[in-house]
């Protein structure tokens, strides 16, 4: 029973994603009765969900409360390995400012958080794409499709090594102006 909150969280996340909703959209649909950060904590299994909250979530998703609760013998599915999303920073800098401003700010934040100032590429993780999708007010899937259309992704294979960072004093790439 120790992992039960995590299994409940996996059910909550799966139902939300099946509906193509972001945490921000859930917050708005619930008139801020369900904060995105709180739902994220439930989905990770970091917090236990009260019966009242389960009812609110079930009502929002239009499912019975029992759909939110896993069977005793149910194990959460292994999350699929997301494809590597490698953003070509040269292509990003060449984009019109208005189109790529949010993306450029997000990339700069990621570079600072990771102390990764590679001038050529940055790899997006699944949670990076989720946060960026919220900023663009869309789903991660739609955002990935849009970024593909913009041509900012660099084709890569799993065995292709990422180029090493050169120049220890090199600063972060500036977002387009």
Brief digest:
The protein has helices at residues 4-18, 23-29, 36-44, 51-61, 89-94, 97-114, 126-136, 140-150, and strands spanning 85-88, 121-124. The chain has 177 residues and is mainly alpha-helical.
Which features characterize this protein?
2 domains, 2 strands, Arc Repressor Mutant, subunit A, two-stranded antiparallel ribbon, 434 Repressor (Amino-terminal Domain)
Please outline the helices and strands:
Layout: H1 4-18, H2 23-29, H3 36-44, H4 51-61, E1 85-88, H5 89-94, H6 97-114, E2 121-124, H7 126-136, H8 140-150
Antiparallel strand pairs: 1-2
Helix pairs in contact: 1-3, 2-3, 6-7, 7-8
Describe the protein.
The protein is mainly alpha-helical and 177 residues long. It folds into two domains: 4-68, 434 Repressor (Amino-terminal Domain) (Orthogonal Bundle), CATH 1.10.260; 82-177, Arc Repressor Mutant, subunit A (Orthogonal Bundle), CATH 1.10.10.1930. The protein is built from eight helices and two strands, in the order ααααβααβαα. Strands 1-2 form a two-stranded antiparallel sheet. The protein is elongated. Mean pLDDT is 78; it is low at 157-177.
